Amino acid sequence: MVFCLRLTRTVMSVKALAPGTVIFHRHRGYGVITAVNLLTGWIAARFGSESRTLDLNLSTDEVQFADGEAILFRRAPPDRMPHARLMAVVRALHEAGYQKLYLYSWPKPSGLHWRWHLFTGTRDWMQRSWREGWYGSGADYNVNPVMGWGDSPGASTGELIDALARFDPHGLAQALGRDDDHTAWFAGVCDALLPGYMYSLDMQRPQGAPLMEMPPVPVVPVRAGLAPYDGPVIGWPPGWAGLWSKVHVLPAPRINLTGIPES
């Protein structure tokens, strides 16, 4: 099955900092990144025929892209989480008629990274459908900035959609249909937050206080150096009201047939 999507917004690919990126160092010459941490700016790279990798920091060491373009890690840091890119993907698919596609994001216990989960079909925020490859974590993206659909680092919105359609056409087909309320809410959220911020659907509890009936939707920057969000208040998505009285049951994990516990 082939999906032909007409996208009204075109986002150009950007140069990515990821394992496999070719770089240039003024003292070492050309090399290849073997490991990266988008949160701290530390990379490991191998130059020439050297057997060992060299640890470098993108904020202080003189590292450039292979074409000589400077890597301005402190002045123009890359996204350390994929959520803004995923929001752009969902918005474009909504415009193409795939409105039964939803993005759930919530923080990991450490508070350093946020998880993400794309689901389709029935809009049930607590009992979400679970498909292989449609979920992930900023912790994984931080060291390998791809979604896991066969996409390339730095892929544009259109390229990500194409990769997803090829990766799981049956799953994407289940998003075809109308959900006008959520589509309108999501479009407004994207207009307010993109490209630098994301929403987090976690119900924060003030220190020593009971859970608020309807707290503001938390907004989180996706890259370093951005000021705290001071735009319009983001409302909760349609279908969220009343969920405080329900038991939040996580989606069933995938079946493990290897016998090796998953981390």
Question: Can you tell me about this structure?
Answer:
- Helices cover 19% and strands 18% of the residues.
- By secondary structure, it is an alpha+beta fold.
- The chain folds into two domains: 44 residues; 163 residues, no CATH class.
- The strands form three sheets. It has a five-stranded antiparallel beta sheet with strand order 4-3-2-1-5, with no helix packed on it. Strands 6-7-8 form a three-stranded antiparallel beta sheet.
- Strand 6 and strand 7 form a beta hairpin.
Strand order of the largest sheet: 4-3-2-1-5
Radius of gyration: 20 Å
Helicity level: 10-25%
SS field, number of helical segments: 5
* Number of structurally distinct domains: 2
Strand content: 15-25%
Mean pLDDT across residues? 87
* Main pleated sheet: 5 strands, antiparallel
Q: What does the overall shape look like?
A: globular
SS content category: alpha+beta
Task: Give the tally of β-strands.
Answer: 10
> How do the SSEs run, as a string of H and E?
EEEEEHEEEHHHHEE
Low-confidence parts: 6-13
Q: Could you tell me how far the N terminus lies from the C terminus, measured between alpha carbons in angstroms?
A: 34 Å
